[in-house]
Design brief:
- With about 290 residues, the chain is an alpha+beta fold.
- The chain has one domain: Beta Barrel (Porin).
- It contains five helices and 13 strands.
Amino acid sequence: MQKSLEQLISLLDLEEIDVNHFRGSSPNEGWQRVYGGQVIGQALVAASRTVTPERHAHSLHGYFLRPGDTSIPILYVVDRIRDGKSFTTRRVVAVQHGKAIFNMAISFQADEPGLSHQFEMPDVPLPDDLEDETSLRKRFAKNLPPEYREMFARERPMEVRPIDPSDIFNPTKRQPLQNCWMRARDGLPDDLRLHQCVLAYLSDWSLLDTALLPHAVSFTQGNMQVASLDHAMWFHRAFRADEWLLFTQDSPSASGARGFNRGLIYRRDGALVASVAQEGLIRMHAPVT
């Protein structure tokens, strides 16, 4: 577990190659393209490196433009748009093969007091009573070809415990709602910016799948084209990404080959720490024969 977490921290530790220019790795983890959460997390790291330490991200809005290539590094170019009295704004463009694959705007703010309210956390089973997603996928994937079985059973730097798991290899129709507990698999340093970047990495893991639930389809099917189109995130309160966080997700609508998804992220003590929204491509082609 420690090795996979060290790999995640290394993944988010970008190399500064020039002023406002950073290079990130893009390891091949068995997927056809770079995992979207990795690009979001790395872009947030790049932006954070250009902002004074007392300011933290409170919102980000990104668009996926092209699939990421796992065989070459990713260049992140930061535009220092504004440094105001209360807020700092940055724009980051991720580049491969000379073309933009992702762009994101991030706003930072210094901590200050103010009015406070939140939705209550749902009453759900606790993570100690649930099975880890890795062991679930090992059981679900036991009849797959060996190359796919290894990819789905591989231990990852985050630990996810679904509350109402679905079999992505044999899906059934259900409401577009799902909940899971998640956290980094081992302890992280005491750096809120790092925890924000890790949570940004985690936030893309299962969100788009929510839009597929009512249709009994899965990204594992040969005739389904599934990809994140955009990703927005708001940070509300302090948290640790190495402690259990509840990710409650829903999908209010799907149309035009796109699915819209929302998520609320709570600490175990019930504090709402972040909100997420995402639209993704869910294009169904003619069945594979």
